[in-house]
Amino acid sequence: MSLSKEQIAQRIAKEVKDGYYVNLGIGIPTLVANFVRNDIEVEFQSENGILGMGPFPFDGEEDPDLINAGKQTITALPGASFFDSAMSFSMIRGQHVDLTILGAMEVAQNGDIANWKIPGKMVKGMGGAMDLVASAENIIVAMMHTNRVGESKLLKSCSLPLTGVNCVKKIVTDLAVLEIVDNTFKLLERAPGVTVEQIKEATEGDLIVEGTIPEIAF
Predict the structure, then answer these.
(1) So which residues are the catalytic ones?
(2) CA-wise closest residue to 161 among 121, 208, 210
(3) Is the pTM of this model over 0.70?
(4) pLDDT recorded at residue 25
(5) What are phi and psi of 209, to 5 degrees?
């Protein structure tokens, strides 16, 4: 059984360590704040100018003045700070963010990522994506393993315009957890009920499978 978007975020939350400063991209990554353990201190940053972002608000408790980079209403934890984009991107470009979690349309086996533009479709720009992937030392991608017609999004090389090169370290999809090792996807974990063969069939890029692959645990 493939993972839901919430389960992808829940698995990625296990990668968040005590004391981390974490940037959450638009889409599935924004859900990660809902699943971080209560016994650790984590500072979530949103590039539109907040440090100390909390989980999504409950229905009826939304504050329209508090939004993330994806224009979703959020909460602010005690001690949160607000600032302009210049300060926000100084944090990012200055490599003060320990972990960046992004969505993607394609990831290549060498760590390239394409997540901002589909040729022929109108976009307002890539936002902070290029700054994030150029500056971050640790990038985890949250994405579906295949597109809507069943084609792999984990490729030998990206076909869409690149956001960054050789930068992705780990990918969590609805089927598996993988990391980039020697320009190859290495399978670490599989979604409950999903077989290694199913993951191989859904992965266009080269895939390393060593030993018994455990199921994802939450």
Answers:
(1) 47
(2) 121
(3) yes
(4) 87
(5) -125, 115
